[in-house]
Specification:
Strand content: 15-25%
Structural class: alpha/beta
Distance between the termini: 42 Å
CATH superfamily of the largest domain: Type I PLP-dependent aspartate aminotransferase-like (Major domain)
CATH topology of the largest domain: Aspartate Aminotransferase, domain 2
CATH architecture of the largest domain: 3-Layer(aba) Sandwich
Shape: globular
């Protein structure tokens, strides 16, 4: 046991020395666009609550009523005694709203990607994936018997070369519509052109786009996506995730997806709340407009001050580089009452650390005017 403990301590010490150590602060509560920590209130730029539904009093009351009515747990796997009609009704509603044949709910986006990508393919399938896909997708592919080949981030030219070499094999392209760290959007028309030419199956993770982008928050990838991954835990203000799929894929997952078969399903109260969220989502055009405008104001303001920042929507990636420096910038901003993520390896490539700025409809122009001068002050002192 002593050797075991020492090995863990050594690994943690080396992790700390490399500027990669993670120890998030305890959060007492959330209030609008702010967090309350032990040291006081901080303005939160590290949230995925893009529309503010996660702190909506309306949704809070609806969810509370649903859990009071239906109880707190399904108490079973979906494949045993947890296949409630209300869950199936909610899944049908999500499929209709987002324009797919079927939907399937999961307790988390990580589990959804794991179930989907570890189950669908066989050894004759070639999966071509954008090299910046989410860690859960990487893990799902690692459990798949498929042949794997990455293509350079957002490079349709590199993808085309991969497709040219694929031949007649069953081919799948896996990507995201809004990348969670880079903040850039998928070139949907360009990918659609490749799909028309090569006929591949296309899977798009829309976790950061659904609810926010597209008409009614329906995302941007439907013209090209055969399968889409969505989440409740970001713009939709709840928890859990969902897949949008053809009916045969849902049937296949019910029969072969270990993460679905051997997990307790989400409760009926979650399904009732998910239905309530769809009604709210359809009425969020003003919040979506506010989010678009405040995100653009932040990006333009940072660039005017000489910062290198990327992002096509509400996720902005501000270039820092060295891991220790990114952590120090984040810590010093927190001392000034601003909370922002220092995204470091392995979340982003080594030596390419960023500040990952998550904008929400709860942010104001005053928040932007506070953030940019604070960042300038911190950067001058490092």
């Amino acid at each position: 046991m002593d050797n075991f403990i020492e090995r863990l301590k050594t690994r943690l010490r080396l992790h700390r020395q490399a500027g990669l150590y993670r120890r998030p602060p305890e959060i007492i509560r959330r209030e609008g666009a702010s967090l309350i920590l032990a040291e006081g209130r901080v303005l939160n730029f590290a949230s995925n609550d893009y529309l503010g539904l996660g702190v909506s009093e309306v949704l809070r009351k609806q969810v509370g009523r649903n859990f009071e009515k239906y109880g707190s747990s399904s108490s079973s796997s979906r494949l045993v005694s947890g296949n409630y009609s209300l869950i199936a009704e909610a899944e049908r509603a999500y499929a209709r709203y987002f324009g797919y044949e079927e939907a399937l709910f999961f307790p988390s986006g990580y589990q959804a990607n794991l179930a989907l990508l570890s189950t669908l393919f066989d050894s004759g399938t070639l999966v071509l994936f954008d090299k910046h896909i989410h860690a859960s997708s990487v893990k799902g592919l690692a459990l798949s018997p498929a042949q794997l080949a990455g293509y350079n981030h957002s490079s349709l030219n590199h993808l085309r070369k991969r497709l040219d070499r694929a031949g007649e094999r069953e081919t799948v392209v896996l990507t995201e519509s809004l990348f969670s760290m880079d903040g850039d959007l998928l070139d949907v028309p360009g990918l659609a052109g490749l799909k028309d030419r090569y006929g591949f199956v296309c899977i798009v993770d829309e976790a950061h786009a659904l609810g926010v982008l597209g008409e009614g928050g329906c995302g941007v990838a439907r013209p090209v996506a055969d399968i889409a991954v969505g989440t409740f835990g970001k713009a939709l203000g709840l928890f859990g995730a969902f897949l949008l799929v053809p009916a045969v894929v849902k049937e296949h997952l019910f029969n072969f997806a270990s993460p679905l078969i051997y997990s307790t399903t989400l409760p009926e109260a979650h399904a009732a709340s998910a239905i309530d969220i769809l009604a709210l989502l359809a009425r969020q055009d003003e919040s979506r407009r506010r989010l678009r405008d405040i995100s653009l104001e932040m990006k333009n303001g940072l660039r005017e001050e000489g910062f290198t920042v990327q992002g096509d929507a509400h996720i902005l990636a501000l270039e820092i580089g060295e891991e220790g420096k990114a952590l120090e910038v984040s810590n010093r901003l927190r001392e000034r009452g601003i909370f922002v993520l220092s995204a470091r390896y392995p979340t982003v490539p080594l030596g390419k650390a960023i500040l990952r700025i998550g904008m929400t409809a709860l942010h104001t122009r005053e928040d932007v005017k506070r953030f940019i001068p604070s960042l300038k002050e911190v950067m001058v002192r490092i």
